[in-house]
Amino acid sequence: MFNRILVAIDGSKNSYDALSAAIALTKQFNSKLFLVSVVNTANLPVNVGVSYAPGLTHDLEEGAKFDLQKAEDLVKKAGLVCQVELLNGEPRSELAHFPKDKTIDLIVMGKTGLNALERAFVGSVTRYVSEHSKTNVLMVD
């Protein structure tokens, strides 16, 4: 049923819970598994004359690589292989559009822990992806 499964990894407990669910589905359907993390370079702080703090993107990328490596290790421990992708941009948009390029059948994401007021002002990556992606989305709590 699901040939290609994407898991969004952001280092949160919810993203690793989503990974656990995706591992089970990957085994059940003999799917190809993709681990994706997005470095949010679209909303970096701006200083006069400098687009963002020097080294900030590098630090964010290193953190995302660490999270992806941890996730990949969990996948290997489960006896599976995966493809790892580190993207730059606006996470909501990248995660909503990436699946089309890779013909992903299912996106597995952790639900956010934001309260209703924060969600109203900031928005949820998971909510945005579920509303704007043409791919099925499984939200894991």
TrEMBL record:
Name listed for the protein in its UniProt record: UspA family nucleotide-binding protein
Species of origin: Companilactobacillus bobalius DSM 19674
Domain of life the protein comes from: Bacteria
SUPFAM superfamilies membership: Adenine nucleotide alpha hydrolases-like
Stored InterPro entries: Rossmann-like_a/b/a_fold, Universal_stress_UspA, UspA
Residue span, UspA domain: 1-140
Gene3D superfamilies: HUPs
Pfam families: Usp
Family indicated by similarity: Belongs to the universal stress protein A family.
